[in-house]
């Protein structure tokens, strides 16, 4: 089966980092793995070409693909556009269009980079957590929402926290499935002592757990989870939580590593179609200078192979190549320490391709 991959370089450093990720995929293609790439614009690049951040052409390409590789979108030149035309709207639109309800954010710290974290090396070295965040429900989407003047004549703002059973079940299945492929430990994060929505969440997760007897399930209140991530993050393997808690916890977890240029992410729908992108933005401050760290994007490609194409061996091979290059002392500017070998974006790509 030919793997159909949509390639959306986007804005800022997007094209530079995607180029290096494609070189890694080319290694596999040249060895006989069948893949087909179709490039399309997203974000500011798409606005410039088509007048919309997620134009019809890009929609068509993405809907027909098995997986989408994205660089990043956004830039100061687009900040004054009407909101619906801003690059970030292209991101929301593609997530909604493809029904990407499961966001996977690994927080992983290679021992070689332990000094990049603001926490003590012994707390974070070797950290390897996967946060599974529900992405299309919760208080971010619940109706009714808005601002109004209430019956007492006072102005108020309000949102609705709501999860349907089907929404909790499908994200729970994704999280248990990932736990099965990793350390078989899953922590479901809620606020069941105060919020009925998350008490319901917990009840459904416990029910889904019956189908995964090998996975050790635990539950934690979100406030405690925020503390535990700082106190002893290595206690976690996979964490699953709703949209708003996941938004906050995944950013917290990513900062444990201290190196934003290293963090991959994936967003999946029910048919394993996925959008794979680095967790960072378009870094306009260093765009076009061949300075960006391409590793987050390269590791996103490893996630693509693992989650959309069930090719664990290829994923592990890419991850091992990254590890080898870091162990050999190669560093882009963002993760550079004295005594290491400083390389550009494309040189980092050279090293990883060679290590494969
Ligand atoms: P950013 O992640 O782009 O940059 C933050 C800092 O990290 C900058 O100093 C940047 O140089 C550095 N950085 C980020 N990625 C790097 C890499 N791969 N290698 C080396 N250094 C790296 O966040 P920001 O500055 O807040 O946002 C810039 C633009 O990106 C904005 O327009 C924002 O809306 C957009 N954005 C897009 C996404 C996305 O596409 N998913 C996510 C976040 C922000």
Give a quick summary of the entry.
The chain is of the alpha/beta class and 356 residues long. It has helices at 14-30, 44-50, 56-64, 87-98, 121-124, 165-181, 196-209, 222-231, 243-257, 295-307, 312-327, 345-355, and strands spanning 3-10, 35-39, 67-72, 102-108, 128-134, 146-149, 155-158, 185-190, 216-221, 238-241, 264-268, 274-278, 330-331, 341-342.
Note down, in words, how this protein is organized.
- There is one protein chain.
- The chain has 356 residues and is α/β, with parallel strands linked by helices.
- It has helices at 14-30, 44-50, 56-64, 87-98, 121-124, 165-181, 196-209, 222-231, 243-257, 295-307, 312-327, 345-355, and strands spanning 3-10, 35-39, 67-72, 102-108, 128-134, 146-149, 155-158, 185-190, 216-221, 238-241, 264-268, 274-278, 330-331, 341-342.
- Helix 7 links the parallel strand 8 and strand 9 (216-221).
- Helix 1 (14-30) packs across helix 10 (295-307) and helix 6 (165-181) crosses helix 7 (196-209).
- The protein starts with a strand and ends with a helix.
- Bound molecules: nicotinamide-adenine-dinucleotide.
- The site of nicotinamide-adenine-dinucleotide has 22 residues, from helix 4.
